[in-house]
Design a protein that fits this description.
Blueprint (H helix, E strand, L loop, with lengths): L3 H36 L4 H8 L6 H7 L3 H4 L2 H8 L2 H13 L1 H11 L3 H12 L8 E2 H11 L4 H16 L9 E2 L12 H7 L15 H14 L9 E5 L9 E7 H6 L3 E2 L10 E5 L8 E4 L1 H7 L5 H14 L18 H13 L13 H13 L10 H6 L15 H7 L4
Antiparallel strand pairs: 1-2, 3-5, 3-7, 4-6, 6-7
Helix pairs in contact: 1-2, 1-9, 5-15, 6-8, 7-12, 8-12, 8-15, 9-10, 10-11, 14-15
Length: 417
């Protein structure tokens, strides 16, 4: 013990010095950011008010390394982004802002259902705009993000220029860890370039003005190459043995896709003009999609095909079309937001401690799921899927996914029609 204790104190001392050194480096970096902002034309007072008190934030870095668009199974991602609750709320927004949306369509040529779908996926129609103070979050990305420091520095200065120019107040700069903010989550440089004053009040306010946010989103999509009156996506099926071309960029005419055995999801032949790429996010056994130039415009909003699929499918649902005809090829599909919330309550009720139920599956909920899976003799994945949900007694919550088990799995699980 006598030899162990000095060694322990030595380790603790080294850790303390390491933390102190990291904080000093961060403070020095923030001081440099203030100077850079002033050189870019930001007033010293605004730079100080924005950056004084900035501290290292481990949550910013953690989120930057775990983006769900790239790590979440596609059926999970779609289940919580395009659930019945979001469809219902979106239809209410279509009615509430009908006049604004008709004006947006007239001016920019972008389909109103797509504009509202972006709003729904990005912030749940303005209800979840983000809790990070942008200057501090962007300072963290610049000073300890490890890459693209110049980009993050530019976004920080752009956010302050929006305040200095009178579009926003400093206390309105709250959004995501990556600097996206407002009703439809523009990053500051995009805000400067493409935001519009659609309500005519003299300010481009995407935080409090829904008309400005909807008009700006349509302006973005039009500048990204949106083609008025053209489709964005259609669901298709491919032959079970299909091994031909696929990918968003590998576009071909619809007649060419037809010659390769691709048909509409209901079995009808493909017809019409234009060219499209074929996406098979779950392989040939899952739903397939022919995606057009307008899908590419949606893709540019977040540079993730799963994201563009969610926007496109939600837009279709808002326009009155049904959910996908072909189910995802899994026996453990994803959960809606309401079902995720219920899952957390069930975990807590059975002593697995998922934390305060909020419908968000973070590390504590994942650990609780793993403990529950172990208790029920299941593979420990930590994933919020339907198997563990039903094992805990979940019956399906209001606003669910409308999921229907694929025929191939019904005999294995006992689920009946």
């Amino acid at each position: 013990m006598r030899t162990f204790m000095p060694a322990l104190f030595g380790v603790l001392g080294a850790l303390t010095l390491s933390v102190a050194s990291a904080e000093a480096n961060f403070s020095s970096c923030v001081a440099g950011l203030k100077q850079a902002a002033v050189r870019a034309g930001i007033s010293p007072d605004l730079a100080a008010r924005a950056l004084d008190g900035a501290k290292p934030d481990p949550d910013v870095i953690r989120f930057s390394r775990s983006q769900p668009e790239f790590k979440t199974p596609i059926w999970d991602y779609m289940a919580f982004l395009v659930d019945e609750e979001r469809v219902r709320d979106g239809k209410q927004m279509l009615r509430k802002y009908d006049r604004v949306l008709r004006d947006v369509e007239r001016q920019y040529g972008v389909d109103k259902h797509v504009v509202v779908a972006v709003w729904g996926v990005e912030t749940d129609y303005g209800k979840t705009v983000g809790e990070f103070f942008l200057p501090h979050a962007l300072a963290n990305m610049t000073c300890q993000g490890g890459r693209r420091a110049d980009f993050w520095r530019g976004e920080l200065i752009a956010s302050l220029s929006l305040v200095q120019g009178g579009d926003l107040d400093l206390d309105e700069l709250y959004g995501s860890w990556a600097g996206a903010f407002g009703q439809t989550q523009f990053i500051p440089s995009t805000y400067k370039r493409l935001a519009v004053d659609f309500d005519g009040d003299g300010r481009r306010d995407l935080v409090r003005s829904v008309p400005d946010a909807l008009g700006s989103t349509a302006n973005y999509l039009r500048k990204a190459g949106w083609q008025p009156g053209q489709p964005w996506m259609i669901e298709v099926k491919v032959p079970a043995s299909y091994s031909g071309p696929s990918g968003r960029k590998a576009k071909a005419s619809l007649s060419t896709w037809g010659s390769r055995g691709v048909v509409r999801a209901d079995g009808r032949p493909i017809s019409g003009g234009g060219s499209a790429g074929l996406l098979l996010p779950a392989g040939p056994r899952g739903p397939g999609f022919l995606v057009f130039r307008n899908f590419d415009a949606i893709y540019s909003y977040n540079l993730a095909e799963s994201y563009a699929l969610a926007i496109s499918h939600l837009a279709d649902r808002l326009a009155g079309y049904p959910t996908f005809r072909t189910p995802w090829p899994t026996d453990d599909p994803g959960l809606s937001r309401a079902e995720r919330l219920e899952l957390q309550k069930l975990l807590n009720a059975k002593g697995f401690d998922a934390g305060k139920p909020d419908g968000k599956v973070g590390p504590q909920t994942q650990a609780a799921i793993s403990r529950a899976e172990a208790r029920y003799g299941m593979e420990q994945t930590g994933r919020a899927g339907r198997k563990i949900y039903e094992a805990l007694g979940g019956k399906g919550a209001a606003g669910g996914t409308g999921f229907r088990m694929p025929n191939i799995f019904r005999g294995l699980t006992g689920q009946k029609d």
